[in-house]
Amino acid sequence: MTEVLSTASAPGKAILLGEHAVVYGKPAIAIPVSELRVEVVIESFKCPAGDIWIDSPVIRMYKCVNDLPYENPLRMAVDLTLNACGHPDIPGLMIRINSALPIGGGMGSGAAVSCALIRALSDFVCPNTFTLETINGLVFDVEKIHHGNPSGVDNTVITYEKPIFFRRGESLESIQVKQPVNLVLADTGINSATSSMVAGVRKRFDQDTVRYNQIFTEIENLVAKSREALEQGNTPLLAEAMNENHRLLQQIEVSSFALDRLVKTARNSGADAAKLIGAGGGGNMIALCNPDTEKVVCQALNNAGAVRVFAFTLNSNKDSE
Length: 321
Ligand code: MEV
Hints:
Number of domains: 2
Distance between the termini: 43 Å
Bound molecules: (R)-mevalonate
Helix content: 40-55%
Radius of gyration: 20 Å
CATH topology of the largest domain: Ribosomal Protein S5, domain 2
Strand content: 15-25%
Shape: globular
CATH class of the largest domain: Alpha Beta
CATH architecture of the largest domain: 2-Layer Sandwich
Order of helices and strands: EEEEHEHHHEEEHHHHEEHE
């Protein structure tokens, strides 16, 4: 009989403003999407002691970890966790991974899988030893393999699961959201690898550094305005900044026909703002709505061919900490 030994989960994320610029030391605002999660269950498994199997239907994987290459992100998450736990003796284990997050969809699926896996495995192997900081550091180490030069924003917002103002190399700052914010995500259905999008921006940055630095400074100003807007409940200011951020993301060539089409659809159907989220090239966009416009915007995005439309609310957390 299999026995469930531990379970853990991690949320998806959306970058409200500042993606790409954040790789260059500018700040970004990121929020968790707690309704869309990765769930990990660790079970006992009839295999030699110390062996760990992975069953993940979303990535069509059913394999023993030892048969994966060392740099495979799942193997890395397992190895780093066991290492940090001091390699105690363990029985044969099965790690089951289920995810409601699109892969390559700009919602941090890779970081969320690592985070949930590291949590579940460490809870079983060395309970109560990992702090959030430890988990965040390990997820970041795995991210470095996925993405080459990640800023750290994805692992941080996913591990701490709260709205953050994030700047590379600095400790995170929580954002006190004054009023609920109605948001809609729509997926183009096109997968896009963060690593190649980030590498593309780097190439263009190297060719046109002055202009790219100007754009990143403009994004920095928008991020500062948006933080204020969220903390004061100023939706028009937030909307203006998000729309402007999308325009700047178009300038650095990370938007796409499909993303622009959904962004336009959302704005034309009543959203206050819309922009791509994450690395771009495909994946998801986000629309800023209100309770009166949300349904119509969702309908319009569905009609425009989005493969998934998901409405959620960024709740007020003012004075909740
Ligand atoms: C990806 O979710 C966000 C990027 O800014 C990359 C990064 O911050 O590492 C595109």
